[in-house]
Structure formats: C-alpha cells, structure tokens
Amino acid sequence: PMAAGKMTEAQNVLKRLMQKGVAPTTVLYNTIVDGCCRAENMEAALLVVEEMEANDMKASRIIYNALLNGYCKMQKVTSAEKVFTEMMQKGLMADVVTYNILLDGHGKVGQYKRCFEILEEMKAKGLKLNAVTY
C-alpha cells in the first residue's frame, strides 16, 4: 500500500499536471483515490473525487469500491453505507466485489444481521457468490 507521504506526493503530481494543462485520466484518478483509501486518508480521497467531478468526470464503481474498502478497513461501516447509498443513487451497479467489501466490513464489527441482508440482496440481484463471499 502507498504510504501517506507518497499519497500527498501523488496528489501534488496531479496538481502539477493540471497546472500544465494535462487532463488527468480516469485511471489516474482511480489510482490516487485507491492510494488515499489504502493509506486510510479518506478526507484526501473524497477531495480527489470532488475534484474529479468538478472536472466533469464521473466517479466509477472502482472509485466507490475503493471508498467502501477504505471506510470498512477503518471499521466505519456507517460511512461505508452512506457511500454505498450514494453509489446506488448515482445509478452505479454494485458488483460482487462491492458486496464482499460490505460483508467484510460489517462482519468485522459484528453486524451479522446486516451481513445476512447483504447476502439476500446479492441473491435477489442474481449475483453469483464467490469464494471471497464465503
């Protein structure tokens, strides 16, 4: 995982590129948001997402999964659920990875009732459970 110092460095590179008129790509944004989340710097991750959206780029499921992963890793499942709701409201489809992140997060904090609800939701949507799900 990227260290917090490296993340700030990556954000500075992004700023410099933009100042030089280089348009950041979705892949670049995905990488920076994922790095921020892995470094448990959710504030920076959310700022990058805001910046991305200000540049008329839509946050993808990859970015939402990174945000979910970051919050769940920090055991902030309430924040993760808010991100999940926002993702759904924006019309992005949750995949098995999305649900596995939520299952893991809720499982780690002992919210097993929510885990069962998530499993039911997955089944209702016809998503195939994989080895990670179990």
TrEMBL record:
Pfam entry (one): PPR_1
Spans of repeat PPR: 25-59, 60-94, 95-129
InterPro entries named in the record: PPR_rpt, TPR-like_helical_dom_sf
Keywords: Repeat
Family as reported in the entry's similarity comment: Belongs to the PPR family. P subfamily.
Official protein name in the record: Pentacotripeptide-repeat region of PRORP domain-containing protein
Lineage per the UniProt record: Eukaryota, Viridiplantae, Streptophyta, Embryophyta, Tracheophyta
